[in-house]
From TrEMBL:
Belongs to the ABC transporter superfamily. Belongs to the binding-protein-dependent transport system permease family. The chain crosses the membrane at residues 33-55, 95-121, 128-152, 158-176, 212-236, 264-288. It comes from Streptomyces sulfonofaciens. Keywords: ATP-binding, Membrane, Nucleotide-binding, Transmembrane, Transmembrane helix, Transport. This is Peptide ABC transporter ATP-binding protein. Residues 345-597 form the ABC transporter domain. InterPro entries: AAA+_ATPase, ABC_transporter-like_ATP-bd, ABC_transporter-like_CS, MetI-like, MetI-like_sf, Oligopep_ABC_C, OppC_N, P-loop_NTPase. Residues 307-338 are annotated as: Disordered. It comes from the Bacteria.
Amino acid sequence: MAVQAAAVAEADAAPEASVSPSRLWLRLLRSPLTCTGLVITVVFLVLGVIGPWIAPYDPSSVSHAVTEGPSGAHLLGTTQNGQDLFSQMLYGARASVLVGFGSAVVTTVLSVLVGVTAGYLGGLGDELLSLLANVFLVLPSLPLTIILAAYLPHSGSLGIILVISVTGWAWGARVLRAQTLSLRKRDFVEAARATGERTSRIILKDILPNQVAVIAASFLGTVTAAILTQASLAFLGLTDVTQWSWGTILYWAQVNSALLTGAWWWFVPAGLAIALLGTALSLVNFGIDEFINPRLRQAGIGTKKAQRAQVAGHRTRRPRRTARTGPRPPAAPFTPDSTDVVLDVRDLRVEYAGEGGRVRAVDDVSFTLRRGEVLGIAGESGSGKSTLAYAITRLHKPPAEVSNGEVRYTAADGTTVDVLSMGDDELRGFRWEELSIVFQSAMHALNPIMRIGAQIEDVLTAHRPHMSAQERAARIVELLGIVGIPADRADSYPHELSGGMRQRAMIAVGLALDPEIIVMDEPTTALDVVIQRQIIAKIMELKDTLGFSVVFITHDLSLLIELSDTIAVMYGGRIVEMAAAADFYHRPRHPYSRGLLASFPTLGGPRRELTGIVGSPPDLRRMPSGCAFSPRCPVAFEDCSAREPALYRIEGGGGAARAACLLYADAGGGGTEHELARGGTQ
C-alpha cells in the first residue's frame, strides 16, 4: 500500500505534459519582443530581395536636386550629386543582407563541421582540428580582414563573404567543440550508442539538437558582425565603392563631409538600418532558447494522445539483422541449483592508457550469470564496478580498452558468442536485443530535448524496422504501463517527470526489446528511500514476470542483499568475495566485506557501533604489493603484503562462498580464479 500511495503521489506531483509541437510556433510568435524582431528581420530580408525592383530611381543617376532633405519626390533626400538616397538604401539592402546572412551560413557550417567533428571523434583528428582552430583564433582578425579585403577590392559581395568567413569560423568551432566534449560523455549519448545508433545519426539526432541554441546564437551574432564588418570595410574604402551597400552610403557621406554640412539624411538612414537589423536579430535570439529548450517552455493544458505523439516524423531504417517478431518467452524461474548460464565472463581485464603508463581498472575478473539470476556487484567508488559494466556492454571509448578476457553470451537456443569479438554490425544487433543497460543518472541518460515516447521509439525503430507506426505506438504504451507510467506521459520531456518516473522510463527503454540481460548501473542513485523501494519492487516484479537476468551495480549493500541471488564484492578492480546473498549477509568472509556490512546500521537486533573501514581505496596507478586490501585490513599478517590471494573456495560454504583472502588459502579448494568463480555461481 505504501508503494502504491507513493506512486500515486509521485504521478500527481509531476508537472503537466508540455504542449504539442504544432503550438510551439504560436507561443514563439506570441512573445512581443521575439515577434517584433522577426517582423523587422523579415522586412529587411524582403527589401533585400525586391529592393532593386521597387527603387524609384537609379541609385547612381545624378540630378539637379543636390543635397536636398527628405521630400515627396525624394523620401530620404538626395546626395551632393542629386542621387536619390532612398533608392541607394533599397539597393544597398541587398548587398548588406547578402553579406550578413551569406557569411553567417558559411561561417556556421565551417564551425559546426570542425567543432562537432573534433569534439565527438576525439583522438588525433581532434588534436589536428583544434590546432587549426587555435591558429585562426590567435591571428589578429581586424588586420587580417583589412589585408584580405585590400587584395580583393573588386570581388564584390562574394569576396567580402569569403574574407569574413575565413576570419570568423574558429571562435564558433571552439565553442561547439567544448559543448560536444561535454555532451558526448552524457549517458543519453552512450545509450544511443548502446541501442545501435550509427555515429552520423548520433551526431545529427543527439549532439546537434542539444546545441541548436548555441548554433543559432552564433549564426545571428555572425550576421550582425558581418554586416558591421562589411559596412566598416566599405566606410574605409577597402571594398568596391561603386557597389551600393549601407557601408558605401556611409563612405560617400564621410567623403563629402555630410556631417559638417548638416546633411543628416545622408548618413542617419544607413546607420539606423544597421542598428535596427542588429537589434532585431538580438530580439529573435532571445526567443530561440525558449523555443528550443523544453525546460523554458510553460506547461500547456491540452496534450495529444500518446499514440499520435510517437508516430510523427521518424524515419525507418534498414534492418541490420533478423529480429524477433514477438516477445521473448519467459525463462524458467531461477533457483540456486540452476546451471543455465547466460553470460560467462572469463579473466576480463580493462586498462586505461595514459602518459604514466597503463592502469588496470578491472583486473582478471571472472563470473557467470545464470538465466533469471540477479547478480549484485558492490564496492567503494573506484573499485571498478561501472568499468566492468561498460566492458560487458562494449561501451568503452579510448583511452579505455579491454586487454584480455572473454565475455561469452549463450542464447536461449544454446548458441554461444563472444561479445568482445563481435563486429560493429553484429554488436549493434546484440545490444538492446539481447543485452541492455540502465545508466546511473536518468536525467543525464535521457535526451533532454526529446519526449519520453520518442526515445523509446528510437530503440524500436533501430531494431524493429518491420513494425508499423501503430505497432510502435502500441508497444510504447505497453512498456510505459509495464513500469507503471501513465500512457499520456509519453508526450512529456524528461524534466517534466519526477526522479522515480524518469528512472522507470529508463527501465522501459531497457525492456523495449525483451532482452535476456539488463545491466543496471546504480539505478537508484539520488532517489529517496520510498522511491528506491518502489523501483526495486518494480525490478523484481518485472524479473519474475519476464524472466530476464540482471547485473545490479550499487554502493548500497542493503539493496543488494534484498534483491540479489548472488553478490560479488569488488576492490581495486578485482572480485574479492562472491557468495549467495543470504550467506553473504550472515557470514561475510572477506575482511573488506565485513567492513562494508559494519558500515550500515541494522533496523533490528541490539544496537552496535558503526565501525566502517579505515583508510582510502587504493590508487590504481600505484597498487600495493600482495593483497590490495592489506594496508587497510585489521587482520593482515606478513604474507598479505607479499602474496596476491586467489579467489579461494571456502569449505562449509555450500559450494557457493569464495573469498580472495590468505586466511582461506589452506582452508579448502584451490584452482584458477575463473574456475572458482564459475563454481561459486553454479
